[in-house]
Structures are given as C-alpha cells and as structure tokens.
Design a protein that fits this description.
By secondary structure, the protein is mainly alpha-helical. It has a single domain, classed as ABC transporter involved in vitamin B12 uptake, BtuC. It is built from 11 helices and 4 strands; from the N terminus they run ααααβββααααβααα. The protein has a two-stranded antiparallel ribbon with strand order 1-4. A two-stranded antiparallel ribbon has the order 2-3. A hairpin with a 2-residue loop joins strand 2 and strand 3. Helix 1 packs across helix 9 and helix 1 packs antiparallel against helix 10. The longest helix has 31 residues.
C-alpha cells in the first residue's frame, strides 16, 4: 500500500508538469495551429543553464531568471525565422520540420557547451531527503512542492487567459486571425507572445522535472515533450483543463507501469495511450469536434 501511494503521488506531481508542457503546446496551437516540436530542447536548455549558473556562484533566483531570459530570446528566434516563413506557404507542414530541427541543433550545442554527461541539478525546492509522513507513508516534500507550484501556474495561466486583455485577444486570434486583424488586434504580437509564453512554461517545467530527477543532460527533454504531447491529445487540444487532466492521467500511468511492470515499458505506454485515445475519442476527453464549413 505504501508503494502504491508513493507512486500515485509521484505520478500526480509529474503529471501536473506534463500538464504544464501540454498547455505550452496548446498556446501555439491556439494562435497558429502549430506546435513547437523543439519544446523538449527548450526545457533541457533552461534546466542546464540554471544548473550551470548556480554552480558558478549565481543566486538561484538570478540563475533561473537568466535562463528564462535566454528561453525568451530563443522563442522569438524560433517564431520569427522557423515558424512564420513556413506559415506563408498554404498547407505547409514545414514548421514541424523546422522546429524539430531547432531542437536537434540545441541538443548538439548543449552537448558541445556543457558536455554530454549529466549535470547535477541543485536543490532549489527542498532536498531529496526531506519528507513528511502522510497516513503512515513517507512523502517527499519535493513532490508536494512541485505539485503545488505546477497547479498554481495552471490556475494563474487560466486566470490570465480568461481575465486579461491579452488572454481575450489570444482567444479571438484562435477563432479567426483575419477577423481579429480587421478589428485592430495586433495578431503578429499575439502570436509572438504565445510562443514566448509557451517557452517560459517549458523552461519552468524543465526546472521542476530536473529538481525531482536531480540531474539533467542534453537528451533530457525528449521524453518530456512526448508525454506533454500525449497529455495535450488525451485532454483535448486547446483545453487547459484537459491538458492538466491528461497530464495527471499520463503521469500516474507512467509511474504505475514503471513501478509494477518495467521502466522500459513507460515509453511504450505513452504511445499506446496516444493510439488508444485517437481511436476511441480523437477530440480528447475535454475537446469538442470541429465542424468546418466548405
């Protein structure tokens, strides 16, 4: 029973992070119907920069802010030079190849700059040995803190989208970009802002996962973006609630499969879950079918 509760909490905590990643993917899907397939490398770069700067004597807060600043610049470059040109060609999927290419380049540069070996990630939120007893079970404070932070970010994002001018403008662009442009909404800036916000969420997600795992390497983000994509599809593309629910379901299943069957089966579980939801309910748990008039 103790093992089950430990795996359950770990799955919920990691799943909340998958939900954050899924929301980041949803952000760009709303405004441009595209996704940044280099998102995993963004997570990796932010976590590795944070670990490196802290190791060189920077304060934790300053190191995190500097790493997120680099992510913002990177996302501006990605949207401007890899996504926007591809979208000028009607029906082109060039954005998928170009964003994936940026991610591969980032992995190579990270291996060149930081080395291919895993870097130890410092204890930003509690340490690995800090725990609390809940119903007789020792629960890691890291998992609890990460879960609380992830849920707080999801709630803050939902309030931002529903209660601010930028959020309403983004929703208008997602419905009809041409009409939004006609009524004076700066579509170009909204799209760029969605990519920047997506990158910041990815960077924070990378730091949270690295905090739990304790290490980060150039291949760090690949598995994360897969589970984030599965969470987005499972919950329904474009749904914040669905992204969080899909992330928690994927996280719990991952931990249960890894704990009771085999860690090697975790990757297969992600693809199996993706195939299942596409067959049974393609629009996801909280998504709605799209009706296109021709």
């Amino acid at each position: 029973m103790e093992d089950f509760l430990t795996l359950l909490l770990a799955g919920i905590s990691v799943g909340a992070i998958y939900g954050l990643i899924a929301i980041g993917l949803n952000l760009t899907f709303w405004t441009t119907k595209t996704m940044n397939f280099g998102q995993g490398s963004v997570m990796m770069l932010c976590a590795m920069l944070t670990a490196t700067l802290i190791a060189r004597g920077w304060s934790q807060a300053l190191a995190i802010l500097a790493a997120l600043g680099v992510v913002v610049v990177l996302m501006v470059f990605t949207e401007t030079y890899t996504v926007r040109p591809a979208l000028k060609i009607e029906g082109s999927m060039g954005w998928a190849v170009s964003t994936l290419g940026v991610g591969i380049v980032l992995q190579g540069l990270a291996a060149l700059w930081f080395g291919s070996q895993a870097l130890a990630f410092p204890d930003v939120i509690f340490s690995a040995i800090d725990d609390v007893v809940v119903f007789g079970v020792h629960v890691s404070l890291q998992y609890i803190a990460v879960l609380v932070l992830a849920l707080a970010l999801v709630v803050a994002f939902e309030l931002l989208v529903r209660g601010t001018v930028w959020g309403r403008a983004m929703r208008a662009v997602s419905m009809d970009a041409d009409l939004a442009s006609v009524i004076g909404i700066p579509v170009r800036m909204i799209v760029l802002g969605s990519y920047i916000a997506s990158g910041v969420l990815a960077g924070i997600s990378g730091i949270l996962v690295a905090q739990i795992g304790g290490t980060v390497d150039p291949a760090f983000g690949f598995e994360l973006v897969i589970f984030g994509f599965v969470a987005a599809v499972l919950g329904g593309m474009g749904s914040t609630t669905g992204a969080l629910a899909g992330g928690i379901v994927a996280g719990v299943l991952q931990q249960m499969v890894g704990g009771y069957i085999s860690s090697a089966a975790q990757h297969g579980m992600a693809f199996g879950l993706l195939i299942l939801i596409l067959v049974v309910r393609p629009q996801g748990l909280f998504g709605q079918r799209e009706i296109v008039k021709v």
